[in-house]
Amino acid sequence: MAILVLSHPLPSEPFADALRRAAPDMPVWTEQQPPPSPDAVEAVLAWRMKPGVLPAYPNLRVLCSTGAGVDKLLAAPDLPPGLPITRVVDPQQGVQIAQYVVACALHFTRDLPLYAAQQARAEWRRHPVRPSERCRVGVLGLGAVGQAIARAFLPLGYPVAGWSRRPQDVSGVRGFAGPEGLPLLLAQSDILVCALPLTDATRGLLNRATLSQLPQGACVINVGRGEQLVEADLRALLDEGHLGGAALDVFEREPPKPDNWVWTHPKVLATPHIAAQAADDVVARQCIEALHAVRAGRRPQHAVDRAAGY
Ligand code: OXD
């Protein structure tokens, strides 16, 4: 009895190796090295789940995500009722995402695309540095990751605000909450960062109506989920000049098709979902802890609330 890694489209071997290092006595299987019988599978470690897969394992006790988000797992139509689902909680992920977001924000606020274009023309021309007051940062989502992002901006002198479903107190960060707080945050965000989980309430949240409320020239950084941003609306607002740029690490479809406009738009910085990558050893250790917890009749530490979606 033990763990089956179904991490497609991520390669399964690095996770399987990390599981074997963490628990050498625990059998670990993959699609390439399948379990001797479906009855033997107690835990599945996965990123997304095709229909028809989970019901084939009658002794499944826990489903573990390879990432921080579980939206792709929750989207499976045939999740066994009551099956605990866990997410990865790696403090390094907050650090990595904060590094990525700050790098993207500086890319725009310190005019690096403009200087790259000048360099290509061998042009030596200096532009005024944008004052910090005109680099107001608004972070959507003040969970562990959103808080790490918000805090990373404070030493740079940028005013930082955050928005969350329920009020959150983060030192140095101006807080907005609930539906009535969203327009207030948008109206004062020159840099808007999306770090929200994907839920029914956040799907499509960044659309023409909401993005139009950002100040003229604002930039959008999405490290949440692609489905939260209506890409066609973003493109229209970039082309119309209302928005100054966008850094996208997540997309409506991953990877975007080769002819997708995001690859070539001059105002877009597009990266392949790399803002943070949980270490394989952390993913493995938390999956094993979750399995030990359910075997002992306990709720795993990082079990998600299925109704809330995270
Ligand atoms: C995620 C991750 O959930 O990369 O996006 O962990």
Per-chain topology:
Elements (H helix, E strand, L loop, with lengths): L1 E5 L6 H10 L5 E3 L10 E6 L15 E4 L5 H4 L10 E2 L4 H19 L2 H9 L16 E4 L3 H10 L6 E5 L9 E4 H10 L3 E4 L13 H4 L6 E5 L8 H9 L3 E6 L19 E3 L9 H16 L15
Parallel strand pairs: 1-2, 1-3, 3-4, 4-5, 6-7, 6-9, 7-8, 9-10, 10-11, 11-12
The structure holds oxalic acid.
Written overview of the protein:
By secondary structure, this protein is of the alpha/beta class. It has two domains: 107 residues, 3-Layer(aba) Sandwich (Rossmann fold); 180 residues, NAD(P)-binding Rossmann-like Domain (Rossmann fold), CATH 3.40.50.720. Helix content is 29%, strand content 16%. The protein is built from nine helices and twelve strands. It has a seven-stranded parallel sheet with strand order 8-7-6-9-10-11-12. Strand 10, helix 8 and strand 11 form a beta-alpha-beta unit. Helix 1 packs across helix 9 and helix 3 crosses helix 5. It binds oxalic acid (OXD).
